[in-house]
Design brief:
Layout lengths: L2 H19 L2 H23 L7 H14 L21 H4 L1 H24 L2 H22 L4
Helix pairs in contact: 2-3, 3-5, 5-6
The structure holds heme C.
The site of heme C (HEC) has 21 residues, from helix 2, helix 5 and helix 6.
Length: 145
């Protein structure tokens, strides 16, 4: 690659990441879409709708724990407007919001831990606790569809 081409691709890469960073609403919604893709199949296994596969379930649980660290950074001030279901309370009740995140992350960490053991008797309640943490936060901070 010659210098001109190199420079051009560097500029393109920079402007792409800038365009991304400019839309925190899409970024957090993308993480929540990943939540759905991860949590859904786990629920199917817990409920016996699909066969329980210990390795697959543990992988999903580890991924869920990982992405439970991500959406919150994109709830930047002023992003309660437009195509979002985020309630203004996220910004007016920051302590309550933080509490929901902390409880949720503790639940996903616990689920990842028990998922690694493959013990369904422990997985079921841990899974339920994560689901409860999703619902609890949505009830307070996400507009109903
Ligand atoms: C601490 C609060 C909180 C927790 C915990 C939480 N969510 Fe959400 N979720 C939100 C908010 C706020 C939105 C709306 C985001 C927006 O539209 O800007 C949302 C949106 C979503 C969406 C819609 C994404 C889209 O397509 O726009 C899905 C799906 C979702 N959450 C799934 C989950 C699942 C599954 C869990 C648990 C494993 C979970 N969420 C946990 C706050 C939370």
């Amino acid at each position: 690659m010659n210098a001109g081409k190199l420079l051009l691709s560097a500029v393109l890469a920079a402007s792409c990441s800038l365009a991304f960073a400019a839309d925190p609403v899409t970024q957090r919604q993308d993480v929540f879409k990943d939540y759905k893709k991860t949590f859904g199949p786990m629920g199917d296994m817990v409920k016996g709708k699909t066969a329980y596969n210990q390795a697959e379930f543990a992988k999903l649980a580890a991924h869920l724990e990982e992405i439970s660290k991500q959406p919150w950074q994109y709830f930047t001030p002023g992003t309660d407007k437009g195509k979002t279901e985020a309630k203004a309370e996220i910004w007016s009740k920051p302590a309550e919001w933080k509490k929901q995140i902390t409880a949720h992350q503790a639940a996903t960490a616990e689920l990842a831990k028990v998922a690694a053991t493959g013990d369904m008797a422990a997985i079921k309640p841990a899974f339920g606790k994560v689901g409860q943490s999703c619902k609890s936060c949505h009830d307070s901070f996400r507009k109903a569809d």
